[in-house]
Amino acid sequence: MTETKKKNEWLEWGKAILIAILIALFLRSFIFATSIVEGDSMDPTLEDGERVIFNKLIYLLDDPKRGDIVIIQRPAKNYVKRIIGLPGETIEISSGDLYINNEQYTQNFLPEKAIYQSDNYGPLTIPEDSYFVMGDNRSISKDSRNGLGLILEDEIIGKSEVIIYPINEWARTN
């Protein structure tokens, strides 16, 4: 192999590696990112210490939907919660049951009744630029009911798509 061929081969490898790095940086900055779940507020869906990939682009193209697990950016920290109430809806929790617009809502994404009998909340009509969120572990979650408040649309920075760590938990989060 001649010196020129070796030089060209190294140059080609260098370009390929540089392009791969640039693509990875673009994807990480504008489309996908990772977040670590802190605490037990999303149990059993997401557990403390799990790392999830979230889609940053999806809400530029579409609105958040009920049931989406979203990443919420606040000045002190980010939160992972599930969207329960949409803009313009009325939320109420009465005798442990969740009502949306005066209709009982079945939470199929939870393995059991997650709102306890002592939980009563609302009714609250959600403003047009806001969302009502809750953690799946309703008994301990800091969410729209008790400290996190309503979430502004621009505070939602992405939708959780897949668990990437630990590897044995690889799964879609929705």
From TrEMBL:
Its EC number is 3.4.21.89. One of its GO terms (biological process) is signal peptide processing. One of its GO terms (molecular function) is signal peptidase activity. It comes from Oceanobacillus bengalensis. PANTHER family: CHLOROPLAST PROCESSING PEPTIDASE, SIGNAL PEPTIDASE I. It is found in: Cell membrane; Membrane. It catalyses: Cleavage of hydrophobic, N-terminal signal or leader sequences from secreted and periplasmic proteins. The gene is lepB. The active site is at residues 41, 81. The keyword Transmembrane applies. NCBIfam families: sigpep_I_bact (TIGR02227). It is a single-pass type II membrane protein. This is Signal peptidase I.
